[in-house]
């Protein structure tokens, strides 16, 4: 049985139009602004609020978003299927799926799973178990990509000259589909597990926004590109898909990095002070947990009350304090000093 989809006369769909070109140029301009912003953030990464955001991961997510966008433009024909853009395996599988969609999902998984590991499991975010869980959401995709080179274009994806588009073999196309679904499902589970995270941890709220946007975009994108196959050849559908990917990448990027970048540029000391107060609040909330229970203090807590304790904070800071007694804590008389590590 042939895996080809029916040939659709070109008169039934629209070739690249002015609307496509406008969308491409607007998107390119926005991505250029994003790249300038992330380079600016990397140059100034020693600023604690920026360092706490793990700028290198945001940069990876940005690159993945841009590749997803470019792969989408090639898949829908907005870039025209000429020259290198006829290599459908390169753009559809490697650029769009592997280093685009799946890499972006893996970054989201990494950041949320790291919070779950530290706050819920109370384990360090390192070691083979941690990295195996993260990489399992990305590594299968390159394996499927490599399989395409073994199986050949006719059994995976190839340029269909008569239709002037990239033709997927249904079996191969739907073999890739479960991977993003599994990633989104795991992200949903992480969001539910972290729903009661202390309010002082802004990271969770930001990651939740990233998840929701990614979910909406992927569902919309799948409906247009995967279910209504002909629709992705209509100009409105091409512009819609490109705009959705552009929107998803930029919402996540600016939600994560916008505040620290604005603070560093226009209110450096005030934003840093706000950041320090947030860390102090997080530390005090963490300290209060052993005493908040029906049975009072645990034996472990009793042993700690007379000993200095240390709290792990983002790089560049040390928390120095003595563990207060329950009376001191509830009465608000305990003190915690947050100091820059480089000042001793």
Automatic annotation (TrEMBL):
UniProtKB keywords: Membrane, Transmembrane, Transmembrane helix
Transmembrane residue ranges: 22-43, 55-71, 83-110, 130-151, 171-190, 211-231, 251-267
Protein name as catalogued: G-protein coupled receptors family 2 profile 2 domain-containing protein
């Amino acid at each position: 049985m042939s895996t080809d989809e029916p040939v659709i006369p070109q008169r039934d769909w629209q070739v690249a139009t002015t609307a496509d070109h406008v969308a491409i140029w607007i998107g390119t301009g926005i991505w250029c602004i994003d790249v300038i912003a992330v380079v600016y953030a990397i140059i100034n990464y020693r600023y604690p609020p920026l360092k706490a955001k793990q700028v290198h991961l945001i940069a990876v997510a940005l690159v993945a978003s841009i590749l997803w966008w470019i792969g989408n433009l090639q898949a829908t024909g907005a870039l025209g299927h000429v020259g290198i853009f006829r290599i459908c395996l390169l753009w559809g599988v490697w650029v769009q799926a592997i280093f685009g969609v799946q890499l972006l999902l893996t970054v989201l998984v990494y950041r949320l799973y790291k919070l779950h590991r530290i706050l819920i499991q109370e384990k360090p975010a390192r070691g083979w178990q941690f990295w195996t869980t993260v990489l399992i959401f990305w590594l299968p995709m390159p394996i499927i990509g490599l399989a395409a080179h073994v199986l050949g274009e006719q059994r995976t994806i190839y340029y269909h000259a008569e239709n002037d588009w990239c033709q997927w073999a249904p079996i191969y196309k739907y073999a890739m589909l479960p991977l993003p679904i599994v990633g989104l499902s795991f992200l949903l589970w992480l969001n539910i597990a972290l729903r009661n995270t202390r309010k002082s941890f802004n990271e969770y709220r930001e990651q939740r926004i990233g998840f929701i946007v990614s979910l909406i975009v992927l569902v919309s994108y799948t409906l247009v590109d995967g279910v209504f196959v002909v629709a992705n050849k209509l100009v409105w559908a091409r512009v819609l898909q490109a705009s959705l990917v552009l929107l998803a990448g930029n919402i996540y990027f600016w939600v994560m990095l916008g505040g620290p970048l604005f603070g560093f540029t226009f209110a450096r000391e005030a934003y840093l002070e706000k950041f320090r107060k947030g860390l102090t609040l997080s530390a005090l909330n963490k300290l209060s947990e052993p005493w908040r229970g029906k049975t009072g203090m645990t034996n472990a807590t009793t042993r700690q009350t007379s000993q200095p304790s240390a709290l792990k904070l983002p790089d560049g800071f040390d928390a120095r304090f003595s563990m207060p007694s329950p009376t001191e804590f509830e009465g608000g008389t305990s003190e915690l000093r947050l100091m820059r590590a480089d000042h001793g």
